[in-house]
């Protein structure tokens, strides 16, 4: 693999600082983690967006959250066709092997993937409709959410679509037989969240109101 | 979506603490992030494993790394077939839209996905060979790495396979035309890393030795 | 400009080494910086002193900090009189155009400018009182700090004056209408630091105690 | 000063890493620097731009360069009027007190201050002509450079103005009697440089050709 390059110097420097402080001060825990393996209490499905740090928001230590991150925190419907399904594999591993108790889908404000979907579904991003567009085909998962958007101004509708990405993912999660079984057995609970980055807000999906309410 | 449940109390408590401290003290930065959008300098592809915190190792603040996490930090080969490809979508977005300068694949010790692959390829995990096994089909990406493992004891061979997951992902990245073009144009550089969780170690792939060396 | 001379050989040599290593290894990032322009997260006002390297202390890469350096890290009071005000221009650009989220004033131990001010205000440096002394007139900004020094030995009083240079600069920053507005709008936060060079110490100004505490 | 805020957590973390590695490994040198005071070999006047790290380009250790950074690396003409002149104070201190042997003015590509000057002088940035614009009044120093620009396309003319900011600063330096005296006594040499950020290039002003040539 001749294309690999050395790590940028500032990352090497910062790593050395981490090793000498955070790691050194907590070596016992890192060793325990290595020997015992992981026993996370929850799985989180969040966006790749660089502004979303679920471990920061929830003060999480190494070992607490099994975290899958993809564009727009989406879960595709169950489709066991023998192909590579990265997201489905993470869910199968978390529920079937790790037996996490919680599965949290975390959306956020200003999501670029959701915005792309919005423009694609509005007919304003033909390049995303191309069959070779990985982002476009991935955002197809959210297309049903666009159809159900309330009328109103664009900013409101985009925000509603961000929240729809959470609800649709929760619904698709229930299409996985092993998720449905675990939920019905009472050994797994699902949670939908949406993070307002600028205001530090957190809203949770409530089945009662079928809407999001501040945590 | 009637199955969603309220957030566990300990997470609500921690979130409220974060909002009153970390967020409150750094509100200006969160608002800037919300208004300006993200300008991450690097994309990181790491494992979902709860013990791997790339932002901690590299002292990264919100906004620095666009992070995709999947089982065993794998990148599948380029395959524009119009289907949902979550990992490929993240790469397309990071390279094409965000124009990150660095793309880092980060493997780690004790990877459960890699171990599953090892047992599957050794004939000891028939359940993973099933066409309906999402984990098995996802780990197929790493199968070529198993064929090339050196002889030796199991622990050594598993570790070699963890590192192969990094190298194969780097090779598959180069099969994406837009990644190859960006690398050749000198606007994107690829990096392969492997983190020893228990020892806090970090090794980087070196094309010169075709092996990993301590950072 | 006939007085310019060739660069000393040792600097040419070092530059060529940097180009062949640091730059070559990180070319993608330099190109990204050139194409995208800068998006620094913070502005730092520090002293010109050759011993103060804020990028080193904070593991900062190119692009992270917009840095103004002057004698004794001073900010003069707001004075829009149509004259050249280099420091005021940097603040206007950072807050108004770059919209940085943090503005950090960084003082340090053994500051020669502060020491000059101390002697000037003590009546022991008449040459600095001369109207043609640029250093003296610049250090006039810190004069109010001298008046408020506690009684005690000289070393303690000089150190207190170094810290006063940070606090007075923060106060003068608030005299700029656009700084005050941004702070009150919650999109800019101010921070005061003092670096002990010999001990590698870092202290932060705390409004609660109106003093400096170790970070 | 009630507006000061705690340091963002990521900076505290990085500082602690620096203290435990870079500082700890080189403590003797930091203590020597603190006890002996600074003896820099050169003064550098560079831009505040976050992408310009003169210590990186020249592999400089703590203690080597006395660094003044302002918008567009400008030196105003000598003007001993008893007012605060931050840049003039830095020059007086470096030449008169520290007795540096070299004085380097370092310009760079993509300079936002120079671009603002270009637009202001072209009549396209009336807000910068306002007497209360600190950036505009600071960039007045470069105005004579605009008048002498060659005809041609805008990109070429902006680059020429960036280089003019170096030459005009060198000329203004010679208007300071103590600079002129030191140069003529052969104890100070002046150098003009321009850094191409994206390409890692460095060009030096040559009095022979009255132009810039690659180092």
Walk me through what this model shows:
Chains A, B, C, D: This is Carbonic anhydrase. Chains A, B, C, D: Its cofactor is Zn(2+). Chains A, B, C, D: Keywords: Lyase, Metal-binding, Zinc. Chains A, B, C, D: Reversible hydration of carbon dioxide. Chains A, B, C, D: InterPro entries: Beta_CA_cladeB (IPR045066), Carbonic_anhydrase (IPR001765), Carbonic_anhydrase_CS (IPR015892), Carbonic_anhydrase_sf (IPR036874). Four copies of one chain form a homotetramer. Chain A contains ten helices and six strands, in the order H-H-E-H-E-H-E-H-H-H-H-H-H-E-E-E. Chain A has helices at 9-25, 27-36, 54-57, 86-98, 112-121, 126-129, 134-139, 143-147, 154-173, 177-184, and strands spanning 42-47, 65-70, 102-108, 189-196, 201-206, 211-214. The first copy, chain A, has a six-stranded mixed β-sheet with strand order 2-1-3-4-5-6, with helices on one face. Chain A has two domains: 1-36, no CATH class; 38-214, Carbonic anhydrase (Beta-carbonic Anhydrase, Chain A, 3-Layer(aba) Sandwich), CATH 3.40.1050. The N and C termini of chain A lie far apart (47 Å). Chain A is globular and about 55 Å long. Chain A is α/β, with parallel strands linked by helices and 215 residues long. Chains A and B meet through helix 1, helix 2, helix 3, strand 2 and helix 4 of A and helix 1, helix 2, helix 3, strand 2 and helix 4 of B.
């Amino acid at each position: 693999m001749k294309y690999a390059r050395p790590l940028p110097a500032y990352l090497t420097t910062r790593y050395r600082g981490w090793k000498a402080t955070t790691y050194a001060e907590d070596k016992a825990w890192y060793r325990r983690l290595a020997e015992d393996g992981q026993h996370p209490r929850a799985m989180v499905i969040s966006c790749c967006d660089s502004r979303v740090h679920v471990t920061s928001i929830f003060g999480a230590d190494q070992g607490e959250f099994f975290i899958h991150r993809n564009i727009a925190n989406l879960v595709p419907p169950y489709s066991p066709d023998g192909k590579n399904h990265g997201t489905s594999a993470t869910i199968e591993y978390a529920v079937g092997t790790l037996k996490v108790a919680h599965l949290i889908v975390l959306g956020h404000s200003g999501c670029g993937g959701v915005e792309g979907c919005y423009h694609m579904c509005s007919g304003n991003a033909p390049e995303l409709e191309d069959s070779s567009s990985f982002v476009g085909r991935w955002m197809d998962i959210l297309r049903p959410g666009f159809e159900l958007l309330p009328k109103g101004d664009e900013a409101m509708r985009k925000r509603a679509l961000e929240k729809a990405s959470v609800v649709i993912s929760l619904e698709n999660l229930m299409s996985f037989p092993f998720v449905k079984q675990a939920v019905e057995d009472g050994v797994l609970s699902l949670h939908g969240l949406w993070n307002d980055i600028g205001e530090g807000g957190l809203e949770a999906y409530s089945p009662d109101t079928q809407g999001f309410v501040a945590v």
